Fold this protein.
Amino acid sequence: MPTALRIDPRDARPIWRQIEEGVQHLVARGALPAGTLVPSVRDLARDLQINPATVSKAYQRLTDAGVLAVRRGEGTFVAETPPPASDSRRNGRLREEAVRYASLAATLGASREEALSTFEAAWQSLTDGNGRAEGDDE
Amino acid sequence: MNPIVLEGLTVRYGDRVALDSVSLTVAEGAVYALLGRNGAGKSSLVRCLLGEQKPDAGRVSLLGKDVWRERAALLREVGVVPEEPDMPPAMTLRQIARFCSRLYPSWDGAGVEARLKRFGVPADTPFGRLSKGQKAQVSMALALAGSPRLLVLDDPTLGLDAVARKAVFEELIGELADRGTTVFITSHDLAGVERIADRVAVLRQGKLVLDEEMETLKHRFRRLSFPVALTPGEREPRLEALAPVAVAARGWGIEAVVANYDEDRLEGPGKGGPEVSALTLEEIFIALTGESEEGR
Amino acid sequence: MRGFLAVFEREIVERRLLLAAALVLGLVPLLAPLLPGMPSGPPAELRGGTALGIALVLTLALALLLGSSVIARDLVERRLGFYFARPLSGAALWAGKLAAATALTVGAGLLVLLPTTLLNGFPDASGYWGTSSGVFRSGFDLAVIWFGILLLTISAAHAMSVMIRSRSPWLLLDLVALGITVPVAGTCLLTLARNGAGVQVWERFGPAPVTGPTLLLYIEIAVALVALLGLTLAGGAQVTRGRTDLRRGHRVLSIVLWSLLLPAALGLAGYTRWFLAASPEDLVSVHGTVGSPASPWIAIYGQAAHRGGYRPGFLYDVGSGRFVRAGFGRSSFSSGLSPFNRLPLARFSADGRRAVWLESGDMRTPRDDQELMTLDLRRPGASPQPTRVLLRGMVSSFALSPDGRRVAAIHDSRLTVDEIDSGRLLASARLEGVYYGQQLLAFSGPDRVRLYQLDLSYELPSRTGMTLSLSELDVATGRLTTTRVEDAAYDLSAGIVGLSGDRILLRGRNVLQLRDGATGKLVAELGKAGVRGSFLPEGKVALLTRETAGSDLRILDAGTGTELRRFHFPAVRTVVVADQPGPEIVRVVTRGAGGSAPWQLWMLDLSTGEARPGQRLALTTLPFLGAGAWPSSRGRDGMVWFDPASAREVVVLRDGLPGR
């Protein structure tokens, strides 16, 4: 599985949190359908060049949260019914990213309408399932 | 039991103090990174740690025992990747492996063969004729073959290209995933260390100026960028209140690195307030060690 | 052990080409007989010699090379960390590397010899480096010694390599310590060798020399072993305590090395001091004594106990027990003479004030030159003083003037007379011919020196024999006149018995003659076979003849040879004339047949002819003044001095006799 996960050292979040949220994100947007075998701790750690313990911690939290499920001897899979992210966290993240997008749009001199339509288009491409979620403005 | 405990480690070379009462502890299963500029005392520390050198003062406990006295016995459970690959240049890898295999009670000969094959290093080549990257890989393979409880890596990726560096780190990660070995690593490759270390220490002029969990470290360091709009009169009091570890004029503004970022006190990019961004380990390292070089 | 073997094997494998090269080098001797410029000889011998030569040079070079690089090069090139990052003890590392260097060195040497050995058999080292010294009796001995030298070289090369490579100021300390240790040890060994530690100990004076290792060899082996031990331990300490830290290693090495070698050198110096501090009490046998006419001093010289062939000489005051060391014996080592050397130990002046003797073998004088030493016998606490008289070449005879101020000597084919206090040469005359017989040199007046020579002659009726010649040197004019005494011809066993005033006693196998000392003219024939004679201190002649029923002592007038008195001792086998305690009184000691018979003292009155028996003496030895007897060392109580004046026995040399 080509991982769509990326680790960013500049991100203020710890790596395990970046993985945790990245997987949650992939699951939430359907890039990782229920029942998909996720990479082993070892493979993911090697891919990302990170400490396996970090991956392990993220997987542990995801398993505890019900996003992933461990089947003994087979590996770790995306759970059948992933629970929604908790409201307060979800709202916080949404607002945070919205502020970031809005300030970026303002910096680039886009109008409110222009920003909204760009957002619409992006949303559309996501639901079509053939685009990338992350911005590549870095 | 903590695999590594240093207490008051002091090393002097004549008048120069290479290590000034350094104390640190590496917990079982930890990946502990020791950073420092050249000449900060890392190599002296590693030599003392491995019982190669007797400190002028202080105690080194390796796997719970005094390393100076019980070095040979203790090193059966320690894998070492030296800063400079120092195997006898005339020996072939097969000979080196055979030599080492006689010294360790649990020697994974097959593992060495497999790794060398994976690296594409021929076993009949004299060590001296290998490339730098191959030498590092061989060092790594030999260090892992003794099934160590503790791995000590002294700048294992020094001078390696990106591919070789990746190969070394992949081996290390594999070892961590398989056996949960405790790792003590010194490195210049901060980006690489940032991803695997869970605890970071910084040596500066022989003193330990930082010894902290990676997560809390990254959490408390932030860069604050003050916009141009602020006059020095407005800026200075605010800067002083932050007690920054480093301040630099950059472009049209001023950047300050703070070591005790508090989300509640400095909430987001407010009006007239500084823009807040996270720092990579490298940036933190430069802020901690670079400033002092200028300040001297 | 595992670590040692691993290191050992690794070192050998890494340098295996060296062994191959040695084997190739071993082929060179096979061609030796074909090479131009080779001395002629049997091919097998040429090959053997060449092979041995190559092996020696190669092993020494390898010992230096491997010794200096075995650890130190790894240290400098920062490759020792490879070992120290492994579970390998420093001791195993050091031992493994040292053993490998030794094995490679020796192995290379043997491989050089291999082809020659296959062709001609093992070259016999003893054939080239003669075993004639008697110390090294076989090629095996030589091989063991060579092995020791290689080991020493390897470990010394290592130590020096570390000292030089570390570039630390400790090198200064090393140089200082080296500057103390080596000269001290060298001087001690040289001093011991000069004083006979390297001489075979002769248990008794038999015809066959005793062979076997000398004390000096044992000392040298001990010195080598201590050096080897020190160097090896220091190298080991440097590796185990210094580890990859070269400067620390150097420090540890120096501390261990010098804390072993400096005390060892001091110990050797102490031993040498003890060796040289032998007192008369330490003598186990006496090789010569000379008595002083008018003082209680004797010169004595003999074998000291537990000191190899050391034969110290002493001037010994029999009365007080005071003694002064004098190097009488030393000349016999440098010139290779046996202790039977006829040169008298010392000469005493007639007034008993002064003793003079010759010393050589000291570092102050060249090899054969003899320095005249003097001792003031009357001054308490006086020590031997060198004079300015230096006698060049081998001295065959010397005499002191009765006043003790001049010395005459024969050396370098010259008869010389020197003034002792000023060192001035008063006269020197060349002696013609080569001398093979016996000499007697004496002052016949204040300005006259007489030399009696019994010399080998081929012109006698019996074809070969000894003839007497008489030379007189006038010191004032320096003229030497030599007279050949025509009727004084003897067989080869002839000898000069003694000189007293103007009379001289000479003996041949069947003859004893009293002759005029100034002219050599025959005064009297004193007897035929079996007659022994001597001068009494006051000048009369004592003649001893052994009869079947006992012994006769006859006292003759020296001027005419007429008999004055005759004493008969029934059942006595040995008569020794002791002294003259007063005018006309002679004391003798007699002994019956059998080794355990007691000595009996007699007081003889020459004026009345009365013989009064004195006490019985529990003596086994009688080293009487002027008696010329060789004292035996087999006395039960040591060597006993009998003081005739008081008729007291004084045990002079109490301890250290063999068999006690």
Q: What stands out?
A: Chains C and A do not touch (no CB pair under 8 Å). Chain C has twelve helices and 30 strands. The mean pLDDT of chain C is 81.
